[in-house]
Give the backbone structure.
Amino acid sequence: MAYSVRHITSFRYEPAVRESVMEVRMQPRTDFRQRCLSFTLDVLPRATMLMYRDFYGNAVHHFDIPQKHALIEVTAQAIVDVLPAQDFQPEDAGDWSDLDARVAQTDYWEMLLPSQYAAPTELLEKLASELELQRRGKPLALLQELNARLYEMFDYVPNTTNVDSPINDALEARRGVCQDFAHIMITLVRGLKIPCRYVSGYLYHEDKAHDRSAAGATHAWVEAYLGDLGWVAFDPTNNLQGCERHIRVAVGRDYADVPPTRGVYKGDASSELSVMVAVSPMNAPEPEELPPTTVIRSKPLSAETMAEFAQQQQQQQQQ
C-alpha cells in the first residue's frame, strides 16, 4: 500500500528570537519492509539544509536560521510504499535456545541495555511479576501475549504524562500514551534478554480498525529481534502486530534517539508549537487542510539563554 504523508510543525515566538539551530527526523526509512518513493522538506524562513545518517541509519536533516525570526515552519511530505505484513506463527521464531544463539552472533547489545526512558524500576518489576513474565513457551508467542496484556491493563489517555515523566508515572496510573506503552514494553522485553528498540513513525487509521491512538499525530511502537524473523513489530497501544498501516521513520533505544525535531534558539520569548499530521492512501482524495492536532505554549525563558526545543516537540510523539 502506498501512502501520502504530510507533517507540518510550526514554532511561533513572541517576541522574535535571534537564532535557531534544529535537526529533523521526518524522512521515512527505506528497507525491506517499505520504500520511501519521494520526500521533500521545506523550511520557512529559508535555510541551508544538510543531511546525514545517524548511528541507527535514520535520515537527519540539519539547518540553522541565523537571523531574527518569529516563526519557523517545517513541512515534510513523503510518498511511502509499505509491504503487506507477514503472518508469523510462534514456531517460526524457534525456541529460546535458537534465539540466544542468533543474538550471540549479532551486535545488538545496545538494544539489550537500559536507556534513558526505558530502565527497570521497582514498579516495573512488580508489573513483570503480575504478568508472570518469564521465559516460557515460544519467544514470539510470549511477546504476542505481552502485547495484548499491556493493551488490556493500561488505558490510552492523551496528555496524561509529560515529556520528561519517568516510566513510573504511567505504571502508577495504569494509563498513558503511545510513548509510555512503547517504553514499558521495551524495558520488559529487554529483561527477557531479547533485543528491543523504539520505533517512531505514523499509523494510518482506517475507520474499521478502531485504533486507540489518535489520528493526526505521530505514533510509536516497538520492534523485537527474533532470530530468523529479524525485527518483528508490536504496537501495544493498539494491540497490533506490525502491519502495512505502520510507516517507519526512525528507530533507536528509546524516544531520546528519535525526536521528530530537536533544537535550540537564542532569545527571551514565549513560544507556541503546533503540529498537523495527515496520512492517506495514494488512491484516496487529497485530505482537506486540517487544524493543528497539537498546540503547546510556553512562557518566556531567562534572557540570553539557549532554550531546549526538545521538551516541547516530544509532546507530539505522545498522542
Notes: Confidence is low (pLDDT under 50) at residues 301-318. The two ends are 24 Å apart (CA to CA).
